[in-house]
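User: structure tokens for this one?
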Amino acid sequence: LERIKYNPEYATSFELGIKSSWWNNRVIANLSTFITKFRDYQVAQYFEIEEDVWDVQRTNAGKATSKGFELELSMLLLKELKLSGGWGYADARFDEYKNGGGEGIDFDGNRLPWAPKNQYNISVEYQQAISDFGSLLLYGEFVYQGNFYCMASNDPELSFVDSHKLLNARVGFNFADNLIGISIWGRNLLDKVYLLSNVPARGDPSVWYGPPRTYGIEVYYNFLR
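Assistant:
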């Protein structure tokens, strides 16, 4: 029981933001900045207890800081055409993590696990009414996620997950004033191979891959109308 004991984690956060709109609300921009200070940051740590045998334990690091910003932008270029995007940036690091890798091995300055620096997305949506019959919907989305580490050690072989880019799309039709709808959707249209995680298992990396190209048909009915 003693080996799984760890202290509570404390965080102090500060955030400052602004919401704005222009051009009769056809352009909307929101920006927020933040900084979070952690004390006794809880982290899952991987230890090689013997050759090719790994164990994971939750422990407390000393201090950590995450700081960055989030930007959201939406533009109604035409009555039927909308362009949207978002960008999130976070620099999350250990300020102090003494003996994180064993006696005399400090992780001060290392990036926090599972914390990509950059994430952004861009989407285009087009809706066109077709008489009183309904409306056609075309939607495309580009998504980017930056690289990150799965372990506090920032080991480039046993914990690194590279950045990836995905392209998603949807084509649909809404009938009878959005009462009924049908759409064909696809995710990861370029069939990119990318990782979701990378952690050690019996001395070798154990990787989880993201879903391959996926597509389907969706039908809905609005019971609240």
